């Protein structure tokens, strides 16, 4: 096991009706003047934003609002949020939405108290030294941003995604009511669950040996999604299944699944170029990339893929030929994504093979590599993209 | 799934050499004048206390020391610590040891800044409103106290144990070097692992339905201990196995295994009377109590015990007679404890059947019940103790 640090100080309030405690938690964590940041009109139409406002008012807190966050959140709205926060003297950002809204909120939080351009952080030019506190009322189980210090923003000047993260950006609280995820359409629900599984995959396929405890936690999260996702596709109002998925999403990305081991993250980065170029759902892009990546890297550690097949998918171990078991696990992964309505190829996603050079260009892969399980240079990334085509 | 809150703000620094960062973390979390609190002479003889002192000195921090914490930590030393902290103006408690030392440190931390008698908290007369910060350098994988807000102290005036806990008592950091646990004798190692498993059992056997994610996390922690403990008994210097056990101990008790579900805790409370009366290792007492408790309550939910048998112990499900599978799981649990050198009866522990009335008296069970999976009154507690005799 590698040396590691683990820090997840976010306070979680989970369950029915918890959005009505938003004001209580903003106050507890030091907010006075709040930016309520959200996405589309559904949060308004459903009455959620009104309930959050009422909860803030009950605690005597004032607020301004900024909606309009899109999936793959854009730099333009971040600049707008920063200007608004400075003008209004905002001291707390409350994200009401999913990963995109929380990511956008984190960018506004570090940008508001920084003298320069917030993109300096995302482009690697500077490190954040302070941040406004961020809290969230989560409405989508997917990104795990409610419990991570990370944020991914799409720069509209060229449509490319970049990630930034630090301890300062760890949200101070997350309010998680599974009922708020019930209105999510099947495609977004499945896409979110794919993202959750992908967060575990990035940690599961590692070169670090003998990390049984994190292996087992990873497998537990994956098995939960595999069991619960088909239930919510069958009945979107299944509270218990929604609740299990929502908490699994947090467990997948607060890094308990990554403790003590090298992580990979090549597939996420390859996917970011897909969703930046085609504006597709991040999860859908991951459903395309992961089976391709797994197929490409499998021979690097056949036994790990066999363990994955047996422990996660319940395959029978083929002791005479572990490679067959490993392949079966990958096939089961792809078939599962398919069964829940996810695309598993460029073709099904609406991506084009002839765009691969463009994807490699925005990935800026020349002279460096992606991933750690297997280090992928330009040639290897291209090969993975090609495997993903069909 | 029940509504819940989850809060685990402790900063974990895990791995080789991390004890040399103690000063860094004390400073980060606001300490200036430190009480180094520890147990027996082994921490001194091994040079650990000297390394911790050097690390504090490097950061310009001053300290006083108080050793002598015993297993089942006593109220007397807590009073002594409180007096010392007040006299010396201590503002940070650094526990160097296992669960007993951390529990004693938490009691000193809340007691030092309280006007009355610290026992008020443990006897239910008062709630703590403030606390000094507590950090730890962990040397035993067992109690999970490094990541919990709980503390158990034995009152020497009558030799009975009482627990107290609150958010204020959550340690601010935990330094966890698995190498520090290598010198632990086999009996203490196995006793610690039994405690870890028991922390999961208390959460696993629940009346809350449909909490797949926490079921899976629980099973992952249990399977890890079952795999890794025999390895360290075979080779005490197996770093990887020690590391897996140490982190599993934290995962077992930071409450990720309890999220969203009713917990039990009858067995722990029944055991506390055993270790208070006989001064036995807490884990050894749990190895005696748990198989007895499981046998007594099994019929309340045979399918849950069958799931435990199949998923944790790898038993074959007997679909015609699930009770047989359930019983097999309990038998496997008892056999495992036996195989790692734990006692599994009063007789083996050195406890006496004729003391049962005394145990029930200090348990103060009249007019109330223990546990939630099945609520146990006086008669039922007596029956569990009797089952534990042989």
TrEMBL record, chains A, B:
Residues 9-178 form the Alcohol dehydrogenase iron-type/glycerol dehydrogenase GldA domain. The keyword Oxidoreductase applies. SUPFAM superfamilies: Dehydroquinate synthase-like. Residues 189-386 form the Fe-containing alcohol dehydrogenase-like C-terminal domain. InterPro entries: ADH_Fe/GldA, ADH_Fe_C, BDH-like. Signal peptide: none annotated. One of its GO terms (cellular component) is cytosol. The keyword Magnesium does not apply. Keywords: Oxidoreductase. One of its GO terms (molecular function) is metal ion binding. It comes from the Bacteria. Its EC number is 1.1.1.-. It holds the Pfam family ADH_Fe_C. PANTHER family: ALCOHOL DEHYDROGENASE YQHD. This is Iron-containing alcohol dehydrogenase. It comes from Fusibacillus kribbianus. The lineage of its organism: Bacteria, Bacillati, Bacillota, Clostridia, Lachnospirales.
